[in-house]
Amino acid sequence: MIFVDASVPRSVADRIKRSRPETVWIGDVFRLDTKDPVWLREAGRRGWLIITRDKNIRKRHGERRAIAESGAGCFVLVYREPLKKDEIAEMILSFLEDMEALFENTPRPFIYTVTKNGDFNKYDLRP
User: Fold this and answer.
1) pLDDT in tens, 43-81
2) How much of the chain is helix, strand and coil, in % rounded to 5?
3) Which CATH architecture has domain 2-123?
4) Residues 69, 76: Cα–Cα separation, whole Å
C-alpha cells in the first residue's frame, strides 16, 4: 500500500491512484486533524510506503520517534521552487518504482529525501 499524507494535495493522490489503485490519501483512512506521530505509527505498523512533502517530519523528535518505533519507510519530497500539482504527481510517478525498490530492499525504519531530479538521500534517524 502507498500512503500519501496531507502535505500532498488530494488531487495529486487521486492521480497516483489512477495508475496505482493501492494508493490511499490520509483523508481516506484518518481524520485530517490526526497528529503526525499517530498516522506515522499506524502507517508504519501496517507496512505502508509513506510519501510526504513535510520536510519537517525528518527533524521533529516525535515524528522521527514514531517512524523508528513503528518500522516505517518514509519518502520526503524536497524541492526548492514551487511545483504545480501536476508536476508533483509526475515527480511521484517518475520515481515511484525506485521508492518501492528501496522500500522492499532497505531495512526499516528509514527516511529518504527525494529530489525533483531523482536523487535519493537517506536521512539519519538517530537522535
Assistant:
1) 999 999 999 999 999 889 999 999 999 999 999 999 989
2) 45, 20, 35
3) 3-Layer(aba) Sandwich (3.40)
4) 18
Contact 40, 31 (CB under 8 A): no
Joined together, the cell numbers standing for residue 67 give 517512524
Q: pTM score, two decimals? A: 0.96
DSSP symbols for 16-66:
HHHH-TTEEEHHHHS-TT--HHHHHHHHHHTTPEEEE--GGGGT-HHHHHH
In the chain, what are the domain boundaries? 2-123
What DSSP state is assigned to residue 107? P
Residue from 19, 98, 105 nearest 51 by CA: 98
Residue 126's pLDDT band (boundaries 50, 70, 90)? confident
